[in-house]
Protein backbone atom coordinates (compact mmCIF):
# COMPACT_ATOMS: atom_id res chain seq x y z
CA UNK A 1 0.00 0.00 0.00
CA UNK A 2 1.36 3.41 -0.96
CA UNK A 3 2.11 5.92 1.75
CA UNK A 4 -0.40 8.78 1.97
CA UNK A 5 0.37 12.16 0.47
CA UNK A 6 0.75 14.79 3.18
CA UNK A 7 0.38 18.55 3.00
CA UNK A 8 3.80 20.08 3.59
CA UNK A 9 3.75 22.87 6.20
CA UNK A 10 7.34 24.05 5.65
CA UNK A 11 8.32 24.51 2.01
CA UNK A 12 12.07 24.42 1.27
CA UNK A 13 12.91 27.36 -0.97
CA UNK A 14 16.14 28.25 -2.79
CA UNK A 15 16.89 31.94 -3.25
CA UNK A 16 19.34 34.00 -5.28
CA UNK A 17 19.90 37.60 -4.19
CA UNK A 18 22.37 40.19 -5.41
CA UNK A 19 23.04 43.67 -4.05
CA UNK A 20 25.59 46.35 -4.83
CA UNK A 21 26.45 48.34 -1.71
CA UNK A 22 28.58 51.47 -1.32
CA UNK A 23 30.74 51.72 1.78
CA UNK A 24 33.32 54.17 3.05
CA UNK A 25 35.88 54.04 0.23
CA UNK A 26 34.60 50.89 -1.48
CA UNK A 27 31.88 49.40 -3.65
CA UNK A 28 30.86 45.78 -3.02
CA UNK A 29 28.65 43.24 -4.78
CA UNK A 30 27.07 40.62 -2.55
CA UNK A 31 25.66 37.52 -4.25
CA UNK A 32 23.75 35.00 -2.14
CA UNK A 33 22.67 31.51 -3.05
CA UNK A 34 20.58 30.78 0.02
CA UNK A 35 17.90 28.73 1.69
CA UNK A 36 14.57 29.71 3.26
CA UNK A 37 11.46 28.05 4.59
CA UNK A 38 8.11 29.30 3.35
CA UNK A 39 5.07 28.68 5.51
CA UNK A 40 1.43 29.72 5.37
CA UNK A 41 0.42 30.58 8.91
CA UNK A 42 -3.04 30.16 10.41
CA UNK A 43 -3.96 33.78 9.60
CA UNK A 44 -3.43 33.08 5.86
CA UNK A 45 -0.22 35.14 5.59
CA UNK A 46 2.84 33.62 3.98
CA UNK A 47 6.07 33.83 5.96
CA UNK A 48 9.56 33.38 4.56
CA UNK A 49 12.03 32.37 7.26
CA UNK A 50 15.72 32.65 6.53
CA UNK A 51 17.83 29.53 6.95
CA UNK A 52 20.98 30.72 5.19
CA UNK A 53 21.04 33.67 5.94
CA UNK A 54 19.20 32.86 9.15
CA UNK A 55 18.26 36.05 10.96
CA UNK A 56 15.58 37.36 8.57
CA UNK A 57 11.85 36.62 8.43
CA UNK A 58 9.23 38.48 6.41
CA UNK A 59 5.59 37.96 5.54
CA UNK A 60 3.13 38.86 2.82
CA UNK A 61 -0.39 38.11 1.72
CA UNK A 62 1.09 36.08 -1.17
CA UNK A 63 4.24 34.02 -1.69
CA UNK A 64 5.58 36.68 -4.07
CA UNK A 65 4.99 39.49 -1.58
CA UNK A 66 6.73 37.55 1.22
CA UNK A 67 9.73 36.98 -1.06
CA UNK A 68 9.95 40.65 -2.09
CA UNK A 69 9.78 41.76 1.54
CA UNK A 70 12.43 39.19 2.48
CA UNK A 71 14.68 40.48 -0.30
CA UNK A 72 14.25 44.08 0.92
CA UNK A 73 14.95 43.06 4.53
CA UNK A 74 18.17 41.37 3.36
CA UNK A 75 19.24 44.55 1.56
CA UNK A 76 18.46 46.57 4.69
CA UNK A 77 20.65 44.27 6.80
CA UNK A 78 23.52 44.83 4.36
CA UNK A 79 22.98 48.60 4.49
CA UNK A 80 23.10 48.50 8.30
CA UNK A 81 26.31 46.46 8.19
CA UNK A 82 28.04 48.82 5.77
CA UNK A 83 27.21 51.77 8.06
CA UNK A 84 29.09 50.03 10.88
CA UNK A 85 32.08 48.92 8.77
CA UNK A 86 35.28 50.95 8.59
CA UNK A 87 36.53 49.25 5.42
CA UNK A 88 35.81 46.52 2.87
CA UNK A 89 37.51 43.72 4.81
CA UNK A 90 35.48 44.47 7.93
CA UNK A 91 32.29 44.59 5.86
CA UNK A 92 33.05 41.30 4.09
CA UNK A 93 33.85 39.58 7.39
CA UNK A 94 30.57 40.73 8.94
CA UNK A 95 28.47 39.77 5.89
CA UNK A 96 30.05 36.30 5.75
CA UNK A 97 29.57 35.81 9.51
CA UNK A 98 25.90 36.79 9.18
CA UNK A 99 25.33 34.43 6.26
CA UNK A 100 27.04 31.48 7.98
CA UNK A 101 25.28 31.76 11.34
CA UNK A 102 23.50 28.53 12.18
CA UNK A 103 19.83 28.38 13.04
CA UNK A 104 17.36 25.74 14.20
CA UNK A 105 15.43 26.24 10.96
CA UNK A 106 18.30 24.50 9.14
CA UNK A 107 17.09 21.17 10.52
CA UNK A 108 13.49 22.02 9.58
CA UNK A 109 14.69 22.88 6.05
CA UNK A 110 16.45 19.51 5.72
CA UNK A 111 13.33 17.69 7.00
CA UNK A 112 11.12 19.53 4.50
CA UNK A 113 13.54 18.70 1.68
CA UNK A 114 13.53 15.04 2.73
CA UNK A 115 9.71 15.00 2.59
CA UNK A 116 9.84 16.46 -0.92
CA UNK A 117 12.47 13.96 -2.03
CA UNK A 118 10.59 11.02 -0.53
CA UNK A 119 7.63 11.94 -2.71
CA UNK A 120 5.12 11.99 0.15
CA UNK A 121 4.02 15.59 -0.34
CA UNK A 122 1.61 17.29 -2.66
CA UNK A 123 2.69 20.63 -4.12
CA UNK A 124 0.72 23.53 -2.69
CA UNK A 125 -1.19 25.57 -5.27
CA UNK A 126 0.76 28.70 -4.27
CA UNK A 127 3.95 27.08 -5.60
CA UNK A 128 2.53 25.50 -8.76
CA UNK A 129 4.09 28.07 -11.11
CA UNK A 130 7.46 28.35 -9.38
CA UNK A 131 10.46 26.64 -10.92
CA UNK A 132 11.82 23.51 -9.27
CA UNK A 133 15.52 23.13 -8.60
CA UNK A 134 17.69 20.60 -6.84
CA UNK A 135 19.68 22.08 -3.95
CA UNK A 136 22.48 19.73 -5.01
CA UNK A 137 22.91 21.78 -8.17
CA UNK A 138 23.16 25.03 -6.21
CA UNK A 139 24.81 24.79 -2.81
CA UNK A 140 24.30 27.56 -0.26
CA UNK A 141 27.07 30.15 -0.59
CA UNK A 142 27.85 33.82 -0.41
CA UNK A 143 30.27 35.91 -2.45
CA UNK A 144 31.34 39.38 -1.33
CA UNK A 145 33.33 40.99 -4.12
CA UNK A 146 35.04 44.36 -4.13
CA UNK A 147 34.14 46.21 -7.33
CA UNK A 148 36.00 49.52 -7.10
CA UNK A 149 39.40 49.31 -8.74
CA UNK A 150 38.41 46.12 -10.57
CA UNK A 151 40.78 45.68 -13.52
CA UNK A 152 38.66 43.35 -15.62
CA UNK A 153 35.72 45.03 -17.36
CA UNK A 154 32.21 44.61 -16.06
CA UNK A 155 29.93 42.49 -18.24
CA UNK A 156 26.27 41.54 -18.26
CA UNK A 157 27.33 38.07 -17.08
CA UNK A 158 28.26 39.65 -13.73
CA UNK A 159 24.58 40.08 -12.90
CA UNK A 160 22.57 37.51 -10.99
CA UNK A 161 18.85 37.17 -11.57
CA UNK A 162 16.99 37.62 -8.29
CA UNK A 163 14.96 34.43 -7.99
CA UNK A 164 13.36 31.92 -5.73
CA UNK A 165 12.46 28.35 -6.53
CA UNK A 166 11.07 25.32 -4.76
CA UNK A 167 13.68 22.82 -3.66
CA UNK A 168 13.09 19.58 -5.50
CA UNK A 169 14.50 16.11 -5.85
CA UNK A 170 18.14 15.51 -6.69
CA UNK A 171 19.20 16.32 -10.21
CA UNK A 172 19.29 13.24 -12.41
Which terms would index this structure?
single chain; 172 residues; alpha+beta; 3 helices; elongated
**Beta-strand residue fraction:** 25-35%
Secondary structure category: alpha+beta
Strand and helix order? EEEEEHHHEEEE
Give start-end ranges of low-pLDDT stretches: none
Q: What Rg do the Cα atoms give?
A: 17 Å
Largest sheet: 7 strands, mixed
- The number of helical runs is 3
What is the number of independent domains? Answer: 1
Would you give an account of this structure?
The chain is of the alpha+beta class. The chain has one domain. It contains three helices and nine strands, in the order E-E-E-E-E-H-H-H-E-E-E-E. Strands 2, 3, 4, 5, 7, 8 and 9 form a seven-stranded mixed beta sheet that branches. Strands 1-6 form a two-stranded parallel sheet. A hairpin with a 2-residue loop joins strand 2 (11-23) and strand 3. The longest helix is centred in the middle third of the chain and has 22 residues, at 63-84. The mean pLDDT is 86.
Furnish the topology, listing elements before pairings.
Layout: E1 6-7, E2 11-23, E3 26-40, E4 46-52, E5 57-60, H1 63-84, H2 88-100, H3 105-118, E6 121-122, E7 132-133, E8 141-146, E9 163-167
Amino acid sequence: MAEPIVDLKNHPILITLQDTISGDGFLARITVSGRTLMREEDDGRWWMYGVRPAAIAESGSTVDEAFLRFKQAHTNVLLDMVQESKNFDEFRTEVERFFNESDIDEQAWEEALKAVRDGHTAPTEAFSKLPRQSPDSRPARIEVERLDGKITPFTARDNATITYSVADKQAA
